[in-house]
Specification:
By secondary structure, this protein is mainly β. The protein has three helices and twelve strands, in the order αββαββββββαββββ. The strands form two sheets. Strands 4-5-6-3-9-12-11-10-8-7 form a ten-stranded antiparallel beta sheet. It has a two-stranded antiparallel sheet with strand order 1-2. The chain is globular and about 50 Å long. The protein starts with a helix and ends with a strand. The relative contact order is 0.17.
Length: 258
């Protein structure tokens, strides 16, 4: 089993990256890993005084089923914010495109937080996700503990998934890289409405970081489908640490084939 730390230590954006078996989602690379490697591409040769990561806009354009290469483009460097794009290629085709925004904190007259964490027991109170047939290989890298009542393929009328999640082993890599690798590990929230598995694929992912990423161990992630029809689901996502502090907020567009 290849750990995320081992991947990052040997990663070179300019050479072919072959995804280890335990980081696959079916035949394709797990999306969270692709985005984490895109960020690592930036950090490996970062501009001077690069601010903390503030936002990422991700397009999952095609399946990542061949050796991957990554290329970054600095779009703009301002006084407080920097925009950098990273394209992930298979052969000559772009399969993932990410636009990162890095921004320094600034003094502000407004300070409010209107996204409280759902009430729950600590993660130790809940059972680990059962490793059974049909579970994607990449989930072996994470400890996932659903807090219910909705769970994948439970036939729920409430299209929402809430779970405590953590890396099993990410050690000393950059906290923002670890966070992006973790933040997409749950299946789409609409899957909770079904009673059997169907093919699903994330098309876009927008993720914002209210403050710089930290190396917390456990995070509480909530994904909620706001509308699902005509083969597409639109979901909101939010992640908190154990102290109830908002760590990320975002949205996804998901295609489902059922």
């Amino acid at each position: 089993m290849v750990t995320l730390q081992e991947i990052i230590q040997h990663f070179d954006p300019d050479t072919d990256f072959v995804t280890p078996q335990n980081w696959l989602q079916g035949r394709t690379t797990y999306g969270g890993l692709s985005v984490a490697l895109a960020l690592q591409t930036v950090l490996k040769d970062a501009p001077d005084n690069l601010p903390p990561l503030k936002s990422a806009q991700v397009s999952f354009i095609g399946p990542s089923i061949e050796p991957l290469r990554f290329k970054k483009t600095i779009l703009r460097q301002g006084k407080s914010a920097t925009w950098i794009a990273v394209d992930c290629y298979t052969s000559k085709e772009v399969v993932t495109h990410v636009t990162f925004v890095f921004a320094h904190p600034r003094e502000s007259k407004i300070d409010h937080q209107r996204c409280p964490a759902p009430p729950t027991q600590p993660p130790e109170h809940f059972p680990e996700l059962e490793r059974r047939a049909g579970i994607p290989a990449f989930l072996s890298n994470f400890d996932v503990r659903f807090i219910g009542p909705s769970t994948p393929v439970s036939g729920s009328d409430h299209p929402e998934l809430i779970a405590w999640i953590r890396h099993i082993n990410h050690a000393t890599i950059d906290p923002a890289v670890a966070l992006l690798a973790l933040g997409d590990c749950l299946p789409p929230a609409v899957l909770s409405c079904f009673t059997q598995f169907y093919p699903m694929s994330s098309m876009t992912w927008s993720i914002d970081l209210p403050q710089p990423a930290t190396s917390d161990k456990w995070f509480l992630l909530r994904s909620s489908s706001r509308q699902a029809q005509n083969g597409y689901s639109f979901q909101t996502m939010a992640m908190w640490n154990r102290e109830g502090k908002l760590i990320t907020s975002g949205n996804q567009t998901v295609a489902f084939f059922a």
